[in-house]
Write a structure and sequence with these properties.
The protein is of the alpha+beta class and 341 residues long. The protein is 16% helix and 35% strand.
């Protein structure tokens, strides 16, 4: 019989206090190193790695790129490589100096190997300021691992951003969250941003970075109920509900007005989650999806919407990059031969 899925709430009514909690790595920055070279324009003849191959996304096929040449479209690729992440300052902090000096870089740790390094240049003035360290595009929920096919929703099908690349499927209630982060005695606060399958963004406060060296900051869900008998258990529809997931949306670093401004440095290794499974494997008599294909149609439409949403921003950035001045000095003024006589 075909293996299908059933909600854990249904099983809990029978199983009593049985726990189905899991621990997994949501995102590991050691996996997001630049390991492949993607040419940026026809003149790019280099071979230095500048993108992460596993998370590489091609934006050339979205509908608003029809007027570009094939060479221009070939450059419309980006990935979750560490140097591609953005540091978005709060609106009151977005001076030219602060934005130019706020960015991410690959760093090498003796303990962990490759990690993400973050530099934020906060205002010197005494007012609250925050910086959102976010991926270059929203992590897709349904992108197939091999880049082909229309859907990747089945429980036994891996998607491109699972296994530590920013996406965690089959997530019910989150019990705990942990971040391995490097502190340099700055008293700034750290928040983690997550997005669920419904597109709702949630923020968890992890703690302050006023320590020296690597440390694990942990958030424990105050609303998590350990005893199943005390939970509000309900029978929920099975098919055609899709598998729930969470994806990593970024870190937020906040500086209080009373704290020191200027440059701030920190490093991140990974984000880990302890959670309840949302659905369990069991045997079903009929393969519903093979017959009706409701989930396939729904998730294919959502995938296209996601591609166009973050693809448009990538195209705009590419256009600005092409228009950017490359000269750093002026051409010397030619002497007038008439005046030399």
């Amino acid at each position: 019989m075909k293996k299908m899925l059933i909600l854990v709430a249904v099983v809990s009514l029978v199983a009593g206090g049985i726990s189905f909690a899991e621990e997994a790595v949501l995102i590991d920055f050691g996996l997001l190193t630049a390991d492949t070279h993607v040419a940026v324009g026809a003149d790019d003849k280099g071979d230095t790695p500048n993108q992460n191959e596993r998370t590489l996304m091609d934006f050339a096929n979205v509908r608003f790129t029809g007027s570009f040449t094939d060479e221009q479209k070939a450059a419309m690729k980006t990935s979750l490589a560490i140097q591609n992440w953005e540091v978005l300052l709060s609106s009151s902090s977005r001076t030219v100096e602060n934005m130019v000096n706020s960015y991410t870089r690959e760093a090498t740790s003796k303990q962990w190997g490759k990690v993400m390094g973050v530099r934020v240049h906060y205002p010197i003035e005494n007012f609250n300021a925050s910086a959102l360290v976010k991926p270059p595009f929203e992590v897709p929920g349904y992108e197939p691992l091999n880049g082909e096919g229309d859907t990747a929703q089945a429980s036994d099908t891996k998607t491109k951003f699972e296994d530590g690349y920013g996406l965690l499927k089959n997530v019910g209630t989150i019990k705990s969250l942990a971040v391995n982060v490097y502190g340099l005695n700055f008293p700034h606060g750290l928040w983690v941003h997550l997005i669920d399958a419904e597109g709702i963004e949630k923020t968890m406060f992890m703690g302050f970075l006023n320590f020296d060296g690597w440390g694990e900051l942990r958030w424990d869900n105050p609303g998590y109920i350990v005893e199943v008998r005390n939970r509000d258990l309900r029978l929920l529809p099975l098919y055609p509900d899709a598998m729930p997931f969470v994806k990593f949306a970024g870190f937020e670093l906040k500086r209080d007005a009373s704290r020191v401004g200027g440059d701030f440095i920190t490093y991140f290794k990974d984000v880990k989650v302890i959670y309840d499974k949302a659905i369990l494997d069991t045997d079903r008599d009929i393969d519903d999806e093979a017959l009706w294909k409701i989930i396939e149609a729904r998730e294919t439409a959502r995938k296209l919407w996601q591609m166009e949403r973050f693809g448009k921003n990538q195209v705009i950035r590419y256009i600005d990059q092409q228009k950017q001045a490359t000269e750093s000095t002026f051409t010397p003024t030619a002497k007038n031969s008439t005046n030399d006589k």
